[in-house]
Design brief:
heterodimer, A: 123 residues, alpha/beta, Rossmann fold, 6-stranded mixed β-sheet, B: 531 residues, Beta-Lactamase, Helix Hairpins, 4 domains, 13 helices, rod-shaped
Amino acid sequence: MKKRILVIDDEAALTRMMKLNIEASGNYEVRTENSGKNAITAAREFRPDMIFLDVMMPDKSGDDVAADLKQDPVLKHIPFVFLTAIVTNEETGGHASEISGNTFLAKPVKKEELIATIEKFTA
Amino acid sequence: MRNTPAEAQSCILMVDDNAANLGILSATLNNPQRRILAATSGAEALSIVREVLPDLILLDIVMPGMSGFDVIRELKSNPGTADVPVIFLSALSHPDDVVDGLRAGALDYIVKPFNAEEVEARVTNHLRLRKLELQREKQNARLELLNDRVLQTMREAVMGLDSEGRIVFANQAAVELLRAGDADALIGVYCDSLLDSKEPIDHMLKQTGQPAVHHFEAQTRGDNGEPLPLECSVAAVQGKADAQGSVLVVRDISERVKAANALRSAHDKVLQSHRALQQAQEKLIQAARMESVGQLAAGVAHETKNPLAIIQLGVEYLLDNEPHNETDQQVLEDIAEAVRRADTVVKGLMDFARESRIEAQAVDINRLIETSLSLIRHEARSRDIKVHSRLADKLPKFMADKDKISQVLVNLLMNATQSIGKNGEIDIITCYEKASRELLLDVPDKLHLSDRPLLQIIIQDNGGGIAEHDLRRLFDPFFTTKPVGEGTGLGLSVSRNIVQMHGGWLLLRNRSQKQGAEAILLFPVEENQAT
């Protein structure tokens, strides 16, 4: 069975590109969501194996979404990784890195980093 | 008038070996204001003089035994009697005799036989002169005494100098000022050898013909050899050519100079603190500007990196989606390279906005706190917030990045003022001791901060405290309780990062006994750096 990946980002073009790239490998099924407010509902419906979460979204920030995820009895065990434009690749060392207990991926993210991160978190 | 007291009486001593002469003379001179004594020999005359000092002596020259010349010689040789006026009364009438008599020291010479009225007139004149002479002497003595009193009570040093510039007299103040044992030690000393003035004193006096007083500054050596600044006035004493000299008045102005210096250094300090204030203000403006640059950079990065991410992933998808011709491949690779370059530019902008290196140096943490407090003082004052500091002295030397720690302190202090809002108190405390067990529960073990004294900085406010559900998220990046646009949500996470870069830990919690929150900074300090 294919692993399910939920991508939450207000940029529809970005979520589209992520879906195309991740699904191209043939191992994953991707659902995209462009509203922070709908993120929890989408996660409940889709039951992903992991979540990519944009930090800066106009209706609800990724930070708030993450706080809700951690509170949710059903979703709290699902690993999530922040996608952020604020942290540079230099700081993350070119791969997902931990800051204050959270994992970050710096935009623009390369396909191989994306896949490596997914493999790590869904293993 | 008959009972005129003895002091008012003039005393005349007649000396003649002829008793008849004495009788005539006595009758001639007799007068209630006169006491008349008589002696019939030179020896008797001298013995009377030893008892009573007469105001006038009428002295015969030719006498058996001691002659009048012998007597006058004897009188002149004794300082006590040398000034007593003597009139010779003699039958020797040759002009040579008269000259001899006057040369011997007599004031007058009357030839016998004498005219009674002439004798009376001469005696009266001489007695008056004698009286004036005595008055003058008395007055001089009084003036001298007065002069001496005035000089000795003056605080200014006063010295008399002769024409060569040697000291001829000095008052007590001069003795003390010039560190001489007594006045005698100064007499005869060249004044220039004791006072350093730009110009020798006698030059100043010769310079102008005016009898003006010259004022000048000079120096002498104080008790410990340090230079003592002096203010001097010198004036020539006009007199005969051989008696020229000057009077020099010297004041010690070290207190005045000290006061002037103190005033100047106080003035300098005011200027310094003004300058420091200006610098602090500029720093604050710079910090505000840097913050907006940081926000701008974050905004630009966000707005740029999202489209870059889309292009990046789009290109990679197409590159993996074979087959395509060589030209397509080249176009896609060029786009990928352009994305990489654009990303580098954005990264440079972000690096500019936040410097992430640590530059450690020995920091006086208390002083750094004072500096940081001065940056928020205005804000605190405008909110009616009182800031108290209880800073431990003798804190160990702390190797740290001054600017970054200051950034943390300002950040925490600003949070405290915002948490209070209006009207409250902030306490800032430093100490060097082990952290409590309960405090260490919230510190990661890997930092190894237990079982050793730590440099602790505690910032307490009496504001609203931290809501229970916010406590866990305080240090999450982007978490903020401030209205949209007012906080980046990065302050605390950046602060904890800075503290961690120093091997320490930053805690935030609600105060246990009182209302409000406290921030606690714990820093390890190398033991051998403790002072």
